[in-house]
Structure formats: C-alpha cells, structure tokens
Specification:
alpha/beta, Rossmann fold, 2 domains, six-stranded mixed β-sheet, 37% helix
C-alpha cells in the first residue's frame, strides 16, 4: 500500500516505513468473526455477496455492479460478507484544550498524525475505517469504508478541524454508540479533560454494546510533569478563569491531583475492559505506535487466542 500512498498532509511515508508491518488486534469477538479465527487472505474476492452500496469516489471500479447500473442508471458497488466484518471508528477530540503544546507540535496536531497513521494501518489490513471529530458536539462523521480513497477524506477532515472552547466527551461517546449498529473497534484520541465518571459511563456504553474500545490518552509532557518555574498566568482553554501563580507552590498539589485523576481513569478502563494507553506528545509517533501495537499483541496473545482487526 505504501507504494501508492496518496498525497496527504497527515501521512508521513518515512514514518509508515519505520512502523513496518503492524497489526491491530481485537480483544474479542467482533461482527462476523469468532475469537481465535483469522479472516481469509482472499478478503475482497469472496463469493459471499452481502449487499449493495451506492458508489463513492475512491471505491474500486471492479466492484461496480453493471447489471444494477443497466436497470437504474446509477452506480452501485457490491459488498461481500468478508468486507463487512471489520469496522474501525477513530474518535478525535477537537476541543480547545487539545490546542495546547509546550513544544513544536500541540496535542491536536499530534492527534491528527496519530489518527491518520492508525487509519492507514487499518486500511492496510483491508479493513474499514471511519472518523468522528467532536468537541461539545459531533462536528464531522465519516462512516467506515475500506476503499483507499477514504484516507483522502480523513485527511481533509483533519485539515478542516477548528478547535472550539468546550468539550463534551461523555455525550459524544453515548452518541457514537447509538450511531454504530455493528460491533466495531473504537479508538478514542483525547486529553480526557472532563469528569472521569462521565467519561467512564460513555466508555461503558460502548463496551455494553459489544465494541472493542481503545483509549489513547494524549497529553503534553508539561501536563504530566508540570516543570514550570517563575511566575506564570495559566489561561483556561475551555472557559475557565485565568490563574496567576508561582508553579513551584502548587506543583505538589497539582501532581497529586493529576495522579489521582490518572489512576481513576486507568482503574475505570481496566474494570470495563477498555484498553488504555498514555500518549506523550514529546515522543516520536512511530515509537508510540510501535510500542502500543506490540504491547497489545503481546498482552492479547498471552491469554486466549485473539482475532485480527
């Protein structure tokens, strides 16, 4: 796939080459697949016809049903059962707090490259990927598709993101759960600056509906370490009042509170069988992704046999 990589803003060919042959592994059964089974390598050429879908730019020309075109004068593509097994939806938080960055790249830009790279991995597996962009409401929703053209649509949506002050993570998790009718793989990319109980309730909704859920908790290193010195004025990125203080005086309290918040998130995710990973935006993206995929594969293969997604 990398030989024909389209021209995009958020896919780095050199980074993808360094990532190598990574696979996204499903924790448990997803639609149409038993735990421990592997899909056919001939996926996309199956004779088990499922249904038609109206043609969209980027779909394979060979999949157009010309008989239907002859009857309706409209283009429809044929979907096969093997092509409808795997859906992955990437949720990206575009609230104003994601616009913070202590280095060259803020959290939102890092999240965009992360989302595009994950979408590429899913498409490389010949599975379907879609994207949802949210803040206080859902701004964009692109349903999962398996055609290569979807990566161009994802890239365009990522370029068009404009951060807004407020976020409502829990509501968007509930909304996306109601929208997805098939058991899927859901990846949430966010700094998760919201009420922990509300976030966990939204994640629980997705898990209750049978989705595999991954949380990529995307944080700036200054948020993790709080290394500020001198006198600073901290601006509220989501409507909070500014605070002027000497960071050394509040550092211990900040780190204690931040640690409790992180532990509550991790414990809640573990209890709900949601896979949680902290993403430090100071780390190279290929290193973050390689560690995430390899750790996930090692963890899941250590227990019961896992299915590929």
């Amino acid at each position: 796939m990398s030989e024909n990589l389209p021209d995009t803003n958020y896919l780095d060919p050199e980074l993808l080459q360094r990532m190598g042959d990574l696979e996204l592994i499903a924790r448990e059964v997803v639609e149409g697949l038993r735990v421990g089974s592997h899909r056919s390598p001939l996926r996309g050429f199956s004779t088990e016809f499922a249904h038609h879908r109206q043609y969209s730019p980027g779909d394979e020309i060979r999949d157009i049903d010309w008989r239907v075109y002859g009857r309706t004068d409209r283009y429809y593509t044929k979907l096969y059962e093997a092509e409808t097994n795997f859906d992955c939806t990437i949720l990206i938080d575009a609230s104003a707090s994601m616009n913070y960055g202590s280095g060259k790249v803020n959290k939102l830009e890092y999240a965009k490259f992360l989302a595009a790279s994950l979408a590429y991995v899913v498409l490389k597996q010949r599975d379907s990927v879609g994207l949802s962009v949210f803040d206080s409401e859902m701004r964009e929703y692109l349903p999962p598709r398996s055609a290569m053209g979807v990566i161009l649509q994802i890239d365009q949506l990522l370029r068009d993101i404009k951060p807004t002050p407020k976020t409502s993570i829990a509501k968007q998790l509930h909304d996306i759960a109601l929208m997805m009718k098939r058991r899927s793989f859901v990846i949430l990319i966010s700094d998760l600056f919201s009420d922990v109980d509300d976030i966990l309730a939204g994640l629980d909704h997705l898990r209750h509906d049978g989705h595999n859920v991954v949380v990529l908790h995307t944080l700036d290193p200054y948020e993790i370490e709080f290394p500020f010195k001198g006198t600073w004025q901290f601006e509220g990125l989501e409507g909070e009042e500014p605070l002027t203080t000497q960071p050394e005086r509040i550092r211990d309290d900040y780190l204690a509170g931040f640690g409790e918040y992180m532990e509550a998130l991790k414990a809640g995710c573990v209890a709900s069988h949601v896979d949680y990973t902290t993403v430090d935006t100071s780390q190279p993206l290929d290193l973050v992704l390689s560690e995430f995929f390899n750790e996930r594969q090692s963890t899941l293969s250590g227990g019961s046999a896992a299915a590929r997604l």
